[in-house]
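We include this case.
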Amino acid sequence: MSSVLCRFMSRPIVYCCVRHQRLARHRHRYSTADNDEEQEAIHIPRDKIPVKFSRSSGPGGQNVNKLNTKADIRFHLETADWLPPATKERAMKLFKTRINKQGELIVTSQKYRSQLQNVEDAFGKLEDMIEEASEVPRGPSGLTLKRIKLLKRKAERKRLTDKKYHSLKKDDRQITDVDET
């Protein structure tokens, strides 16, 4: 497992899964100065996002039964004034399974035994989600478009030759009248 310093707590973060590790590598790879489209980082205002705590599920002994360690972040996506409109729309499409009927985006974390770590993990997940939604997908390159056009032509030619072959095969099955005199 690899680790990076946390922005909020200034201590190393150990990634919980391969997805977060990949996102961090992707973020590092594409955040260099030679990138053509330098995007501004979106600041998540923690004071505007309410955090609720509840009991975690799973093993943990008395800690699970006595303490509310599960962190639950809910905020209305459409009224979030700190998000650009394009990011909101893309987030609604990407994370439609995490949005309830009231339009609230729900992010939960119950990975750790402490509230503070779960809050940090939940905000980290939210940050990754917002970053994923704010990325503008690039269109295909000129070379790819050219290749697609060539493949379409090739497929059309193959379809026509197959059609011609099938037609000739049907013609060969026709019974012709032969004069037997």
Summary: The beta strands are 3-5, 12-14, 51-54, 70-76, 104-109. The longest strand covers residues 70-76. Residues 89 and 131 are 13 Å apart (CA to CA).
